[in-house]
Specification:
Layout lengths: L5 E4 L35 H11 L27 H12 L13 H21 L9 E2 L2 H12 L29 H19 L7 E6 L17 E11 L2 E10 L3 H5 L9 E6 L2 E7 H7 L3 E3 L3 E3 L2 E10 L34 E14 L4 H6 L10 H17 L5 H18 L1 H14 L1 H4 E2 L20 H12 L6 H8 L6 H13 L5 H10 L20 H20 L6 H4 L2 E4 L1 H7 L10 E4 L12 H6 L8 H12 L20 E2 L2 E2 L2 H8 L3 H15 L13 E2 L2 E2 L4 E2 L5 E2 L2 H9 L2 H17 L8 H12 L5 H9 L2 H4 L8 E4 L2 E2 L4
Antiparallel strand pairs: 1-21, 2-12, 3-11, 4-10, 5-8, 5-9, 5-11, 6-7, 6-10, 13-14, 15-16, 17-18, 19-20, 21-22
Length: 819
């Protein structure tokens, strides 16, 4: 089978520390205000310079350079010409973080006036010299690649098999300038093109291979898993693509249960595991066979399976109703006391560790499948019809894969691959060869962008405007994390998408489509750092009721919650205030919410303040904890960085970790708060912890798994603290109310992240005037989610790209410049 080899040419890829200060000195002007102060009107530049001199300059001067920042020569009147520094001031002042206590702080109205003046100066200067910014081309990241294959070939793949992990920058995995093009990455795309094309078409000459699917050790196997037949428990259920009709062998391995062997008996007695394909049983095996043989694997006899995607399940036969008997593992009825945050337990039930599928043996051909039916939209009935049919298939697939109409040069080069493959093995081999070339093409792998047809017309603003076809692709990957559909491609090809009315209708149509759920699973999940849930595995002895499925339910709650805000067009501030959430029975029981049954999620109204908004979500509370204790530091840093956009600086290198603090005093375990108080006694730690800790301590009533508690190590929870602006805190509700006082910072940070994800690049200080314009326009519409999304789509940063014309790609053997 021929392969494309890709090469790139000419592609250019291109927080201040918080320190306490003494009470403020007398007025100390900065910049021109250092000269004789003349009478000025309230709110003038000179007055604002004097405010900076009085409250900021003691720390931020040429000598101390606190946080690496000096304001010695800063002049409010010239804030627009010093926009980078001005934006730092705006961010810290708007969030209320500066000046830090115990330093003297100006009245809130004084700060607001200073911020308004700085914003006015910066935004006016930016309007006079607009710069939409730009980036290099993007490549499909793993999630986009997986969705693109699914859309194109109706084939579900495990993208982890082919591509290395994506680099994350600014919180997202689609940032263009860190998407490296190493040999490993390029080989991954090429290998994927070769294997996926054969899986989609089918391969009657497939050699025997073994695929392995693992079950996380932290997954509970007490209940039926999604996709498995009813009447089973545990195990796994996956989509597997069989390359050819033939015989396959299924091998299962299990986690050890040493506690059972210690007591001289095992609950494996009478346990059975079933292997089924699309719900039809192909094997039923007694686990005693595995135990008696003292062999780690349990293997089936060869089973005949048809080619194509199939649902394969290996699950235990359920022997009892309700929870299986597992006396060494406490559950709801156990001695575990969740209210004081202590419990213990060890599971003894047999757990599947992995399932391996090997084959095909004795391959007999390739049956029809959804993927094959999708590819072969025509079938030649005579040899002289093969070329015409192949051209129709190749043209359709390539147009969809390249996310634009095909041009003659594209079609010609792809048909060369078809003809080479057909000469080797006939019509289907030719289609497989052409499909491999499509999947390896830079027009599929890379999100190449082109300028608008109006570029070069003499209008300088049009020179960086992207084409309608490029706009369609940007829009689709933003809202769906997937390629554009036929309607969007058609509107873009006709040059109508840049019409504001047409663009607005397309955005509304796409938001109403189920594929817009990607805003929750892709954008919100990354912005809120939900992937960190995978890094936290609560201690099984302390939190025996936590398992993988509960963690998955927590993540799903947050994703569904965000998507509801989008679908119902709610205010973005409901991220903090919502008196509802989405739970299934498992999560409802964890939260103590009654009258919810079943595995499906449903919207529930919340009574009281404990669970309102993101601050009450188990996902956020767990990912900001350690395995055996809560972390006010991690929770405070999450609030500062993710919600307010003002992450604290990293700790000094010589600061001891909290775990180095002695956890015992006078014969008892210290609470997290007590250990933190000892830790922050270190002067090097105190300044930052004054800002961070109160935010996290306000959430201390939530344990590691987000369950509500009243005690920590048998001591009453103390959630009191003082916010950096002097506000007293003592509960999640207090923290929520305090943060809402800085809603401008929260909405600005939300918009920054939304825009960065949408355009695939980190934002610079020069982007902030546009961000503020989006926030302002959204405020006129109740800060509804649709207003932010439309604002991003209509922004200059989304519609323009200063680098769209600078990239050249070379496909060896078929040189072409980027379109």
């Amino acid at each position: 089978m021929q392969r494309l080899t890709l090469a790139l040419a000419g592609a250019a890829f291109v927080a201040a520390a918080v320190t306490p200060v003494a009470p403020a000195e007398p007025l100390r002007p900065t910049g021109p205000a250092r000269q004789a102060v003349q009478p000025v009107s309230a709110g003038s530049d000179d007055v604002q310079n004097q405010v900076i001199g009085r409250y900021c300059l003691r720390c931020h001067n040429d000598a101390t350079l606190t946080g690496g920042l000096t304001l010695e020569n800063f002049d409010v009147a010239r804030a627009g010409q010093n926009a980078e520094l001005s934006e730092k001031l705006i961010r810290k002042l708007q969030a209320g973080i500066m000046p830090p206590l115990p330093a003297r702080r100006p009245e809130r109205t004084v700060v607001e006036e200073l911020v308004a003046t700085l914003v006015s100066r910066v935004d006016t200067a930016a309007a006079a010299k607009p710069s939409p910014g730009g980036r290099t081309f993007q490549r499909l990241n793993r999630a986009e690649y997986e969705r693109s294959i699914s859309d194109l070939l109706l084939l579900q793949i495990d993208v982890d098999t082919y591509l290395p992990p994506d680099t994350v920058s600014a919180g997202f995995d689609n940032i263009a300038d860190v998407q490296g093009l190493s040999v490993t990455v390029m080989e991954g795309y090429l290998s994927a093109a070769s294997e996926i094309s054969r899986l989609a078409v089918g391969d009657p000459d497939a050699t025997v291979v073994e695929s392995r699917y693992s079950v996380p050790r932290y997954a509970s196997q007490n209940d039926r898993v999604e996709g498995a037949p009813y009447g089973t428990r545990g195990g796994l259920s996956i989509d597997h693509v069989f390359p050819a009709d033939g015989e396959y062998v299924f091998t299962m391995a299990f986690f050890d249960a040493p506690i059972a062997f210690l007591y001289g008996s095992t609950t494996y007695h009478d346990e059975q595991i079933e292997v089924s394909i699309d719900g039809e049983r192909v094997a039923l095996l007694d686990l005693d066979r595995y135990m008696d043989a003292d062999n780690e694997n349990l293997k089936t006899e060869p089973s005949y399976v048809r080619a194509g995607p199939q649902r394969v399940t290996a699950a235990f036969i359920r022997k009892t109703e309700g929870s299986p008997p597992d006396l060494l593992s406490p559950h709801e009825w156990s001695i575990a006391d969740k209210t004081i945050g202590s419990a213990y337990g060890v599971t003894t039930l047999p757990h599947l560790r992995n399932l391996s599928i090997a084959g095909p043996y004795n391959a007999t051909g390739v049956s029809a499948s959804v993927s094959r039916d999708n590819i072969f939209s025509c079938r030649p009935t005579a040899p002289d019809e093969e070329l015409t049919c192949a051209e129709l298939i190749v043209t359709r697939l390539a147009s969809e894969a390249y996310r634009r109409p095909l041009i003659k040069r594209d079609r010609g080069s792809l048909m060369e691959f078809y003809e080479a493959g057909a000469d080797e093995g006939g019509f289907e081999v030719g289609i497989t060869s052409a499909l491999e070339a499509i999947l390896a093409s830079p027009y599929f792998v890379f999100r190449l962008e082109e300028r608008s047809a109006s570029a070069g017309s003499g209008d300088s603003s049009a020179d960086s405007l992207v084409s309608d076809a490029t706009l369609a692709s940007r829009l689709s990957f933003f809202l769906w994390a997937a390629p554009p559909d036929d309607e969007l491609i058609g509107v873009g090809a006709e040059g109508r998408l840049s019409d504001p009315a047409v663009l607005a209708r397309q955005v509304d149509r796409m938001l109403a489509d189920p594929r817009a759920a990607a805003l929750g699973t892709r954008f919100a999940a990354q912005w809120l750092r939900l992937q960190d849930l995978e890094k936290v595995h609560p201690d099984a002895l302390l939190f025996p009721d936590f398992h993988q499925q509960l963690g998955d339910a927590m993540r799903r709650e947050t994703e569904l919650f965000f998507n509801y805000l989008v679908q119902d067009d709610r205010s973005a501030l409901e991220l903090l205030t919502a008196d509802y959430t989405f739970v299934n029975e498992r999560l409802a029981n964890h939260y103590g919410i009654p009258n919810v049954s079943g595995a499906g999620f449903r919207r529930v109204s919340l009574q009281g303040q404990e669970r309102r908004g993101l601050l009450g979500h188990g996902s956020i509370l767990t990912l900001t904890s350690h395995a055996d204790r809560t972390s006010a530091v991690l929770r405070g840093k999450w609030v500062l960085g993710v919600l307010l956009g003002t992450p604290p600086p990293p700790p000094p290198p010589d600061v001891p970790d909290l775990d180095a603090t002695n956890p015992v005093r006078e014969g008892r375990l210290l609470t997290v708060r007590e250990r933190m108080e000892e830790h922050r006694a270190n002067p090097a730690c105190a300044s930052c912890h004054r800002v961070i800790d109160p935010l996290g301590l306000a959430l201390e009533n939530y344990d590691v798994t987000g369950a509500w508690r009243t005690k920590d190590n048998d001591a009453p929870i103390d959630a009191t603290g003082m916010l950096y602006d002097g506000t007293q805190l003592g509960s999640p509700a207090d923290l929520q109310a305090a943060l809402l006082q800085y809603s401008d910072s929260i909405l600005t940070n939300f918009t920054e992240n939304l825009l960065s994800y949408a355009i695939g690049r980190r934002l610079e200080y020069s982007d902030m005037p546009e961000v503020r314009a989006i926030v302002h326009e959204a405020a006129l519409n109740g800060s509804r989610m649709s207003a932010f999304i439309h604002g991003v789509v209509n922004s200059a940063a989304f519609r323009h790209n200063d680098r769209a014309r600078s990239t050249t790609l070379v496909v060896r053997g078929n040189a072409s410049d980027s379109r």
